[in-house]
Amino acid sequence: xxxxxxxxxxxxxxxxxxxxxxxxxxxxxxxxxxxxxxxxxxxxxxxxxxxxxxxxxxxxxxxxxxxxxxxxxxxxxxxxxxxxxxxxxxxxxxxxxxxxxxxxxxxxxxxxxxxxxxxxxxxxxxxxxxxxxxxxxxxxxxxxxxxxxxxxxxxxxxxxxxxxxxxxxxxxxxxxxxxxxxxxxxxxxxxxxxxxxxxxxxxxxxxxxxxxxxxxxxxxxxxxxxxxxxxxxxxxxxxxxxxxxxxxxxxxxxxxxxxxxxxxxxxxxxxxxxxxxxxxxxxxxxxxxxxxxxxxxxxxxxxxxxxxxxxxxxxxxxxxxxxxxxxxxxxxxxxxxxxxxxxxxxxxxxxxxxxxxxxxxxxxxxxxxxxxxxxxxxxxxxxxxxxxxxxx
Amino acid sequence: xxxxxxxxxxxxxxxxxxxxxxxxxxxxxxxxxxxxxxxxxxxxxxxxxxxxxxxxxxxxxxxxxxxxxxxxxxxxxxxxxxxxxxxxxxxxxxxxxxxxxxxxxxxxxxxxxxxxxxxxxxxxxxxxxxxxxxxxxxxxxxxxxxxxxxxxxxxxxxxxxxxxxxxxxxxxxxxxxxxxxxxxxxxxxxxxxxxxxxxxxxxxxxxxxxxxxxxxxxxxxxxxxxxxxxxxxxxxxxxxxxxxxxxxxxxxxxxxxxxxxxxxxxxxxxxxxxxxxxxxxxxxxxxxxxxxxxxxxxxxxxxxxxxxxxxxxxxxxxxxxxxxxxxxxxxxxxxxxxxxxxxxxxxxxxxxxxxxxxxxxxxxxxxxxxxxxxxxxxxxxxxxxxxxxxxx
Lengths: 392, 392
Prior knowledge:
The structure is a homodimer. Chain A is of the alpha/beta class. The first copy, chain A, folds into 2 domains: 2-43 and 286-391, Aspartate Aminotransferase, domain 1, CATH 3.90.1150.10; 44-281, Aspartate Aminotransferase, domain 2, CATH 3.40.640.10. Helices cover 46% and strands 15% of the residues of chain A. In chain A, the strands form 3 sheets. In chain A, strands 2-9-8-7-6-3-4-5 form an 8-stranded mixed beta sheet, sandwiched between helices. In chain A, helix 6 (127-134) links the parallel strand 3 (118-123) and strand 4. In chain A, helix 3 packs across helix 11, helix 5 packs parallel to helix 6 and helix 12 (284-309) runs parallel beside helix 14. Chain A is globular and about 60 Å long. At the A-B interface, helix 1, helix 3, helix 5, helix 6 and helix 10 of A face helix 1, helix 3, helix 5, helix 6 and helix 10 of B.
């Protein structure tokens, strides 16, 4: 029945990450491969209380169909959060609740990409976005990511040459690199986007997980009309509830909403109502601070272990938050090859390959620090250091 | 920024139904326009208990990311249900949990439709499917639906002429017509599908809501390898939880799964675990019987009121279950025009137009009986009969 498949689906390879996570699920393997928040810090009791409150107050409504935009009260709370915490004004009417940020990526693909359209992403880039966009068959252009954001010279050059419809970026604690754009870089990018009448897709699931330094301006603040902003409760409250959102100017939202209706009518309503009640009854900032403290300790433990156990020829990005470190091996060393060896030594990571478009056997890899204890970090990084040291 | 939109999204009109439901939400309007299950019969307490059990037993897991296929235990229960109740064998590995059936329609569009592909649906057909498929820009062919299923002569003719990739059908208590395929019609359709190496998409959200007559064979039983089956808990437990599923042969599922990953990683995990615990602790059949009893009373009340208040020139389909009646006005009378007049008389229905491809001002309309009491049915149908009687 192969003739029945669409071209788009035939072109998308099975998720490489998925295969890696399968290998990493062997309990004997210390895995730094995942990209998950640490479940030990989920507010389980608070969310249970929120669920009970929803059932008591409006059980029937929580279980019924609702509008495609999602719970208005929750969209008001999100709008308030941006106003008070990030000095960004977003009308609740211009916020649409999604099934995690991943769905927002799919909706953007649906709404904006024709086959063969030029789009622009970072290199390395978030693989979930590469996968979601790929299904709409664009030409994906990439611009190298430096320590403080994209390479502006390359950025200008590609835009002049290819005139991409949009630029997709994860400006805070990027997945996979952990890097964050400087204030200057944001302003430079914003200026170029406006000058070229482009859309910027700002994917910001990690923005609140800052351990040090100061928050930078959102693109949604700098160039609100050009920016489609994606937010999520997945990394700060719970991913399993699948509550994310997309915020865009009314004219764009009007069409994104059509894509949402066709995609699944609406996201789980109980999840939205639970998060609403959770936010009313609890101090989200205090919860985020608690999580940041733990993640930061794990980050520092991983950096110390890398310093101790990795060859000096392996470099690591300087990250101020999020879930990931990004490492670069000496030129010519394929991280993918080391992966096989690492698995035999019971330690896992994600080789860089799936974060690139059209490149393989790259010399970079991703380490996740949010889900390991300081003890497993020390043992795992030591094992990995040994594998690297013996094979480069 | 119009130049940024994709062709697919520019071609899809804003949901007509959505606009109708907005008008119908005026509390003074008696609305038969919705397609919702009756929230007064949701098992609210039982689902609250299920939620508490999930939080007690595995709160952290329910709140974490999970695999794209969804909860394996729930897929086993679904598989068991088909084995014991419908004599159909479906491997749990070949079941994928979706965000309601609507998402399954989107995944099918993603996985199978190239721009310009021929596909085939019923006329009238489910508008959510028309909307979902339209985004992938196929040529949608239609085949007339008769009292016992599609017109077989037309069905053969269109398939011979257009060689569509798949045929999409709602064989039980169809939305919008309420009609059900006879056993003979199922066998005839199945034979043609196999002879033409086609896929049949069997959308079956209402199948368990049978008030009289006997259950008919699923296409998934008759031609399992050719059939992609869509099921849902929306009409029998709760739609707001957004738990549906798609079952397909492994070779097809392999690709549908890639589409699912790219679309939203996975559906809400808490919802799936809640339904699992609900099914373990409760008698679903007893619950369905209770709901069927109520809906049937409402159906009978609506039929009686139609008999009393509608002109004899208006005909109604004979339905044995589900949520809808489908009515035909004398030729040349546009249901859409009557809609405006009905609204002014504080009663709402859905004119047939959105259930057709490329036809407008049709003389058919849909009435929903699941959400109205016998009293409001009597008042509303009387009002509607008056509008119709004065304007045809």
